[in-house]
Structures are given as structure tokens and as C-alpha cells.
Design a protein that fits this description.
- The chain is α+β, with helices and mostly antiparallel strands.
- It has two domains: 74 residues, Lrp/AsnC effector binding domain/regulation of amino acid metabolism (RAM) domain (Alpha-Beta Plaits, 2-Layer Sandwich); 82 residues, Alpha-Beta Plaits, CATH 3.30.70.920.
- Helix content is 24%, strand content 39%.
- A hairpin with a 4-residue loop joins strand 2 and strand 3.
Length: 180
Amino acid sequence: MSTQTETSDSGAPAGALVFLRGEKGADLAEINSRLLSEDGVAASIPVLGGWSILLRLAAKDRECLKQLIEKRIRPAKGVEDFEAYYIEEKWTADGAGAEQKAVACAVLDVVSGGFSVLAARLRAMAGVTEGIVTDGGRNIVLFLRGDSPRHIRDAVSDEIRPLPSVLRVKLFNAMNFSFS
């Protein structure tokens, strides 16, 4: 398995986040293990809330990412469906301490205009540990920490959903989270 990030000609790595759903009765641990051993799969975590696994991919360019998805992930035994988000920009935030036990990720569909203001507000929110802008700024994937899954759900519904540039939020609880 290679977890070293390749870089493009511009020096910037290409990346993607891929949510997978396993077929009914599929061995998710086996699927997770098999996919994690693929070149280009940098990290994998099990998630709850409509998807089964979240993969973080890295390659030298977007074309290599698309080939990885089409040739290795789409046809993988036990994979029913997937949704890919191509990384444009990412940031880390100091929004939550290590003592917080619950982790989740949220996919935000956002309005493109006023993006810098929205990103600044999200970076400053308690509980936001990382934000990844995907697909030309149409989506933001947030990684969140909190005292409990309910605490995270409340923060999403009270602080993130009401933001004017946020069109929709899909929240997924994570298990054994570590994307470092």
C-alpha cells in the first residue's frame, strides 16, 4: 500500500473523497481492507448515515483519480454505489479538543457566491477540525468533533444549516476516525 501523495506538474496533489455504500450482506471490513490496500487510497473510515465507508484518495492529477475510481472502486466486489468529491482546497482548524469523543463528517451543498465569508465562518466554528472545498466550490466537506453525536447534530442544525450560503447538509457519523 502506498500512502505517499503524488503531486501534479504544478506541485499540488490531486485528491478526492469517496463515499461508498456496500451491498446488502457485504462484508464491509473486507471491502474496507481491500480498498485501503489500493495505490492511491490514502485513508479509509467506516461511516453511518447512508454510506458505509469514506475513502480519501490522492494521485498526481484528476485523470488518475478518475481512473482509480472507475477501475478499482466502482467494480470492487461488494460495492453497491459511491459518490465522489474532488478536492479543490482544504484547511485545518483548531475547533475541537482531543478530549471530544464523537466524530462526524458533513457534506454541505453551497452557493458559490460569498464563498470566502462562508469558509471563514466555518473555520472559526467550534467543533470543525478540517474543511475541504470540492468540485469547484459547490460542496464543502467538514470534519467535526464533539462530546456526543447529538452534540454534533445540534451544532450542525443550529450553526451550519442556517447560514445563508448553505443549501443542504448531509451528516455522517464516523467510527474510529483518523484522517491524519
